[in-house]
Amino acid sequence: MVLYTRLAVVLIAMASLSLLGCGGNNFSNVEVSGKVTSGGAPVAGIRVVFTPEPINGNNNPGPWAMGLTNEQGEYSLTDRYKHIGAVAGPHGVSFSYDDVSEDADDEIAADLAEAKGEDGSKAALAEAKQQLAELNQKRKGRPRVSDDFTIPFVVPAGGTTEANFDLPAR
Tens of pLDDT along 34-56? Predict the structure, then answer.
């Protein structure tokens, strides 16, 4: 019984601390929105992530902020604490698709290698090839983005509705 009481006290303490957080958000955000295009055409379903750059020796200028484009390629940012906008200042902006895993290529390549091996069946090989075809179909006509593709952008102190990006075609 004593063990259960101690466990309950520990769990309640942990839950209370998690609600308090780690110091909260002491950053002041400004509203940021824009549009993502490729060759002038809107890009839907792409995550836009703003990561603040260190400035004047401050290695923690604020939290990252993210938005997801709609069918018109439009997005609005919300920071990691669910507050609207992003901190003002220089950012690196990166992009990733909402419906394709960043590790999809590696996962499919591993499935193909396994299916081609001695223990692989024709059904496994066919399934891996089908996954690859579906991935390529999703990517068809979309701009190419990767982990190392980052665009610099300075968020103005007053915010902006013009954080627009025209991504290169595939």
Answer: 999 999 999 999 999 999 999 88
Mean per-residue pLDDT over the chain, rounded: 81
- 81 shares its domain with 161: yes
Domain contains 134? yes
- Are 96 and 108 found together in one domain? no
Same domain, 48 and 94: yes
Q: Which are the contacts of 37, defined by CB distance < 8 A and separation ≥ 6?
A: 43, 73, 164, 165, 166, 167
Q: What is the DSSP string of the chain?
A: -HHHHHHHHHHHHHHHHHHH-SS-----EE-BEEEEEETTEE--SEEEEEEEPPBTTBS-----EEEE--TTSEEE-EETTS-BSEESEEEEEEEEETTS-TTHHHHHHHHHHHHHSTT--HHHHHHHHHHHHHHHHHHTTSPP--TT-EEEEEEPTT-BS---EEPPP-
pTM of the model: 0.70
Q: Is residue 56 part of a domain?
A: yes
Into how many domains does the chain fold?
2
| Amino acid (1-letter code) at residue 65 | A
Q: Do residues 132 and 82 share a domain?
A: no
Quick one: tokens of 121? 């069946």
